[in-house]
Amino acid sequence: MSRSFEGTPASPGIAVGPAFLLDVEELRVARREISGETEAGKELARLDDALSATCEELRSLSDGMGELVEGRQILDVHMMLLDDPVMLADVRRRITENRDNAEHALSQVLYDVIQRFRAMEDPLIRERASDVRDVGRRVLAKLLGSEREALGRVSRPVVLVSRELDPSVAAGLRRDQVLGFATDEGGSTSHTAILARSLGIPAVVALREAAEAVQPGMTVIVDGIHGRVILDPQQDELEYYTRLRDKYSEMEAAIARNASDPAVTADGRPVELAGNIEFSQEADQVRKYGGRGIGLFRTEFLRLLSPDADDEDMQCMAYSHALREMKPYPVVIRTLDLGGDKFPGVPELRERNPFLGWRAIRVCLDKPDILRRQISAILRASVEGTAWLLIPMVTELDQVLRTRDMLEDTKLALARDGIPFDPGIPLGIMVETPAAAIAIDIFLPHVDFVSIGTNDLTQYTLAVDRGSPYVAHLFDPLHPAVLRQIDHVVRKCHAAGRWVGVCGQIAGEPLAVPLLLGLGVDELSVSISLIPDIKKMIGVVDTAEAAGLAGEALAADSALKVRQLARSYVQGRFPTILLNGFQGTEE
Ligand code: PEP
Ligand code: MG
Hints:
The protein is an alpha/beta fold. It contains 24 helices and 16 strands. It has helices spanning 36-63, 69-82, 85-97, 102-118, 123-126, 129-144, 167-171, 191-199, 210-213, 235-257, 282-288, 300-305, 312-326, 361-366, 368-381, 397-416, 434-438, 440-443, 454-462, 480-495, 513-519, 531-540, 543-555, 559-570; strands at 3-6, 8-11, 14-21, 158-162, 178-183, 203-205, 219-223, 228-231, 272-277, 294-298, 330-334, 386-391, 427-431, 449-452, 499-502, 523-527. It has an eight-stranded mixed β-sheet. Helix 7 (167-171) links the parallel strand 4 and strand 5 (178-183). Phosphoenolpyruvate (PEP) is lined by residues 296, 298, 337, 432, 453-456, 503-504.
């Protein structure tokens, strides 16, 4: 009997096919007491053999990954985990002192590490628990002599269903082998979701109970657009989604064929459409999907993933790659937005209201060496293309002035050393707080451009924690209070001759496009896979009509009314399938 599950859309598209249940072995392994030092020595040797065999396996997986840079990065992180001296010392101590067998000692240590990751508040860091578990399972499989479930054995394309899909498995998925995947856990920012989007495999995560309910071979529908999974569908559901899938594929193919076309409104006004990235290699994807520039490079992800990312040369290499790839279009590189709950390795740093605490530019100015290194890396990379420098979470003019001082000092230092850089690199601020939005005129004389971060602007304006499921229904960037601030900022920026873009999630929501264009923003910067859809939406919007629509939205009394207004504008002009809040009506 058909059962439907709602989750978080992680990668757009629709898949229909037989379920392949990826077995999730538990990490708990029974204890077997070992006797004497010789036995302990044997266990230590078994552990070392298993570690090096796993490392070898990961290396060959990584070598076979070719162009999939994100996949290789993830496997690099896994190889680093295998080498973690603290974790390994703990396992060895359990073997020699507790007389635990190697697999039990390892499983206990892994379990503790995973629990510690899971206790972190930041979902990005919490999701790193899956990397530890993933690599841990590989080593355990070697010790236990069992083979990891080999997806390679499947003879026809399948829909993968699992409690949680390990990133290294996701990295090895082949488009012709896996139609889509559905997981009970995970979030849209997990490695696995990032990879699914890169591979173009439809995916839904955070389904909670789907893996429990599915049987191997059962027909599964994955609706990665709206975050729905249907197990064992009825005949009419099956026919409906099969039609929808084919229609979606045709539409995406048609949109992708026009990737190199510029984004132009129905009345011929060009619109700047760019992509948001977290890793430098994603710049290649932005270009492929037809983005003309990177409106937001969230640099803190490099640092969260790799301990070496603070190194100036490493940073310079990453920025250079993105700049070269996007040349001549701009790459807006944001200084580290660490802080609040994003402090890997500093769990003792607890604040009552982390989002109102030590975050982003506040941290960077308190840790000037970190900021100086990053600015220096950006400046050195700036000769490779068109770099813009962006400061997150600004509330005080002093923050801008101090950053500008540091920028100028760093330029002087580089010039002294004869290192080339772009002396005219623009410095901009993110408008993510009501302080920056309402008092934008204070900042404008001191900045070259502005980027509106609607995710945080919504969170801080509506007093809604953007990560809390309890108040998620109150989080809507189309709330008139947010729209009025965007309107105010755009007007002030243009009056002062400053460029203003939007890089929050809302820029990638088709329904919001006519509103944002109507408000006059210069650029929309969106998740890579959404670039073609947003370009299509731009193409059906008439600038004068959009301005009228924006005027009505500013006068509306709720986000719901704004959504209704926008929906009635796009109705009939844009495929319903791509609009959020899909009600199952097909065009
Ligand atoms: C935003 O706040 O809208 C934004 C783009 O920044 P982030 O999502 O990285 O906080
Ligand atoms: Mg933000």
